[in-house]
Design a protein that fits this description.
5 helices; globular; 2 domains; alpha+beta; 25% helix; 5-stranded antiparallel sheet
Protein backbone atom coordinates (compact mmCIF):
# COMPACT_ATOMS: atom_id res chain seq x y z
CA UNK A 1 0.00 0.00 0.00
CA UNK A 2 1.99 2.97 -1.26
CA UNK A 3 0.71 6.52 -1.20
CA UNK A 4 1.76 8.94 -3.90
CA UNK A 5 3.23 12.07 -2.36
CA UNK A 6 5.09 15.06 -3.62
CA UNK A 7 8.77 15.39 -2.59
CA UNK A 8 7.77 18.24 -0.27
CA UNK A 9 5.10 16.13 1.46
CA UNK A 10 7.47 13.17 1.79
CA UNK A 11 10.17 15.32 3.38
CA UNK A 12 7.61 16.81 5.76
CA UNK A 13 6.37 13.33 6.78
CA UNK A 14 9.95 12.12 7.23
CA UNK A 15 10.61 15.03 9.61
CA UNK A 16 7.58 13.96 11.68
CA UNK A 17 8.61 10.32 12.18
CA UNK A 18 8.81 9.57 15.90
CA UNK A 19 11.49 6.94 16.45
CA UNK A 20 11.68 4.94 19.68
CA UNK A 21 12.43 7.31 22.53
CA UNK A 22 15.74 5.68 23.46
CA UNK A 23 16.84 3.83 20.34
CA UNK A 24 19.75 1.59 21.32
CA UNK A 25 19.18 -1.66 19.48
CA UNK A 26 15.49 -2.47 19.84
CA UNK A 27 13.99 -4.54 17.09
CA UNK A 28 16.07 -5.71 14.15
CA UNK A 29 19.13 -3.84 12.97
CA UNK A 30 20.26 -4.03 9.34
CA UNK A 31 22.51 -7.02 10.09
CA UNK A 32 19.54 -8.98 11.48
CA UNK A 33 16.99 -8.44 8.69
CA UNK A 34 17.57 -11.77 6.95
CA UNK A 35 17.72 -13.85 10.13
CA UNK A 36 14.75 -11.93 11.55
CA UNK A 37 12.69 -12.65 8.42
CA UNK A 38 13.60 -16.34 8.65
CA UNK A 39 12.65 -16.45 12.33
CA UNK A 40 9.28 -14.73 11.74
CA UNK A 41 8.50 -17.09 8.87
CA UNK A 42 9.56 -20.15 10.89
CA UNK A 43 7.42 -19.18 13.88
CA UNK A 44 4.32 -18.63 11.75
CA UNK A 45 4.59 -21.85 9.71
CA UNK A 46 6.01 -24.24 12.32
CA UNK A 47 3.70 -27.23 12.82
CA UNK A 48 3.61 -26.72 16.59
CA UNK A 49 4.28 -23.00 17.16
CA UNK A 50 2.43 -21.69 14.10
CA UNK A 51 -1.10 -22.63 15.17
CA UNK A 52 -0.35 -21.31 18.67
CA UNK A 53 1.01 -17.95 17.46
CA UNK A 54 -1.25 -15.02 16.74
CA UNK A 55 1.21 -12.17 16.11
CA UNK A 56 4.94 -11.62 15.66
CA UNK A 57 5.94 -8.00 16.16
CA UNK A 58 9.21 -6.19 15.46
CA UNK A 59 10.72 -2.80 14.74
CA UNK A 60 13.14 -2.06 11.91
CA UNK A 61 14.28 0.81 9.76
CA UNK A 62 11.97 3.43 11.29
CA UNK A 63 8.76 1.40 11.29
CA UNK A 64 6.94 -1.27 13.24
CA UNK A 65 5.85 -4.60 11.74
CA UNK A 66 3.01 -6.89 12.77
CA UNK A 67 3.03 -10.34 11.16
CA UNK A 68 0.32 -13.01 11.37
CA UNK A 69 -0.74 -15.97 9.26
CA UNK A 70 -3.63 -13.80 7.98
CA UNK A 71 -1.52 -10.80 6.94
CA UNK A 72 1.14 -8.22 7.75
CA UNK A 73 1.39 -4.48 8.22
CA UNK A 74 4.22 -1.98 8.60
CA UNK A 75 3.35 1.28 10.29
CA UNK A 76 5.07 4.47 11.34
CA UNK A 77 4.57 6.59 14.41
CA UNK A 78 4.48 10.29 13.53
CA UNK A 79 4.37 13.39 15.67
CA UNK A 80 0.83 14.74 15.32
CA UNK A 81 0.46 17.70 13.00
CA UNK A 82 -1.22 19.69 15.79
CA UNK A 83 1.77 19.01 18.06
CA UNK A 84 -0.29 16.99 20.52
CA UNK A 85 0.69 13.35 20.71
CA UNK A 86 1.21 10.92 17.87
CA UNK A 87 -0.42 9.69 14.68
CA UNK A 88 0.04 6.23 13.18
CA UNK A 89 0.16 5.50 9.48
CA UNK A 90 0.15 2.08 7.81
CA UNK A 91 2.78 2.22 5.06
CA UNK A 92 2.58 -1.38 3.82
CA UNK A 93 -0.01 -4.11 4.03
CA UNK A 94 -0.05 -7.69 2.77
CA UNK A 95 -3.32 -9.56 3.23
CA UNK A 96 -5.42 -8.54 6.21
CA UNK A 97 -4.29 -6.02 8.81
CA UNK A 98 -3.90 -8.37 11.80
CA UNK A 99 -4.58 -5.58 14.33
CA UNK A 100 -7.23 -3.69 12.37
CA UNK A 101 -9.89 -4.07 15.06
CA UNK A 102 -8.72 -1.68 17.77
CA UNK A 103 -12.13 -0.89 19.22
CA UNK A 104 -11.67 -0.71 23.01
CA UNK A 105 -15.41 -1.26 23.49
CA UNK A 106 -15.60 -4.46 21.41
CA UNK A 107 -16.47 -7.60 23.34
CA UNK A 108 -17.27 -5.43 26.36
CA UNK A 109 -19.95 -7.77 27.70
CA UNK A 110 -20.07 -11.48 28.33
CA UNK A 111 -22.86 -11.75 25.76
CA UNK A 112 -20.66 -10.14 23.08
CA UNK A 113 -17.79 -12.46 23.97
CA UNK A 114 -20.05 -15.51 23.72
CA UNK A 115 -21.33 -14.29 20.33
CA UNK A 116 -17.73 -13.86 19.09
CA UNK A 117 -16.95 -17.37 20.33
CA UNK A 118 -19.90 -18.74 18.35
CA UNK A 119 -18.77 -16.76 15.27
CA UNK A 120 -15.37 -18.45 15.72
CA UNK A 121 -16.97 -21.89 15.53
CA UNK A 122 -17.00 -22.72 19.23
CA UNK A 123 -20.06 -23.49 21.37
CA UNK A 124 -20.06 -20.07 23.06
CA UNK A 125 -21.95 -21.35 26.07
CA UNK A 126 -19.62 -20.60 28.98
CA UNK A 127 -17.64 -17.33 29.16
CA UNK A 128 -14.84 -19.13 31.01
CA UNK A 129 -14.20 -21.35 28.00
CA UNK A 130 -15.38 -19.01 25.25
CA UNK A 131 -12.44 -19.09 22.86
CA UNK A 132 -12.34 -16.39 20.21
CA UNK A 133 -10.40 -16.77 16.96
CA UNK A 134 -7.83 -14.02 16.26
CA UNK A 135 -10.00 -12.65 13.43
CA UNK A 136 -12.64 -11.76 16.05
CA UNK A 137 -10.27 -10.44 18.72
CA UNK A 138 -9.88 -6.73 19.37
CA UNK A 139 -6.50 -5.05 19.84
CA UNK A 140 -7.23 -1.80 21.72
CA UNK A 141 -4.61 0.84 21.01
CA UNK A 142 -2.37 -1.72 19.26
CA UNK A 143 -0.24 0.85 17.44
CA UNK A 144 0.39 2.81 20.64
CA UNK A 145 1.14 -0.32 22.65
CA UNK A 146 3.53 -1.75 20.06
CA UNK A 147 5.39 1.57 19.80
CA UNK A 148 5.56 1.75 23.58
CA UNK A 149 7.12 -1.73 23.74
CA UNK A 150 9.92 -0.69 21.40
CA UNK A 151 10.46 2.66 23.19
CA UNK A 152 12.26 0.72 25.89
CA UNK A 153 15.98 0.13 25.40
CA UNK A 154 15.30 -3.32 26.87
CA UNK A 155 12.86 -4.22 24.08
CA UNK A 156 13.46 -7.50 22.27
CA UNK A 157 14.36 -8.04 18.63
CA UNK A 158 10.83 -9.32 18.17
CA UNK A 159 7.86 -10.31 20.27
CA UNK A 160 5.14 -12.87 19.69
CA UNK A 161 1.68 -13.34 21.11
CA UNK A 162 -0.18 -16.58 21.53
CA UNK A 163 -3.39 -17.45 19.77
CA UNK A 164 -6.15 -17.55 22.39
CA UNK A 165 -7.86 -20.52 20.75
CA UNK A 166 -5.14 -22.85 19.57
CA UNK A 167 -2.84 -22.67 22.54
CA UNK A 168 -2.45 -25.77 24.64
CA UNK A 169 -2.46 -23.54 27.72
CA UNK A 170 -5.48 -22.85 29.88
CA UNK A 171 -7.75 -19.93 28.93
CA UNK A 172 -6.42 -17.88 31.83
CA UNK A 173 -2.83 -18.09 30.57
CA UNK A 174 -3.57 -16.98 27.02
CA UNK A 175 -3.97 -13.29 27.82
CA UNK A 176 -1.74 -11.19 25.60
CA UNK A 177 -0.06 -7.86 26.03
CA UNK A 178 -1.36 -6.29 22.82
CA UNK A 179 -4.82 -7.79 22.57
CA UNK A 180 -7.93 -8.11 24.59
CA UNK A 181 -10.82 -10.49 24.35
CA UNK A 182 -12.89 -7.75 25.91
CA UNK A 183 -12.15 -4.20 26.98
CA UNK A 184 -13.85 -4.27 30.38
CA UNK A 185 -15.09 -6.93 32.69
Amino acid sequence: MTAHTSPHTHAHRHDRIALPERLVGQGLDEHQYESGDRAIHAILIDATAGPQTDLVITYRDGSYEVWAARGMIRFERLFATDGKGFEYRVIEQIGDNPVANQDPRALATIEEELAASKASGFPGIDANTAYVEPEHVTYPFAYERIAQLFDSPNAPDSSSTRSPTRSAASPASTARSTSSRRAHR
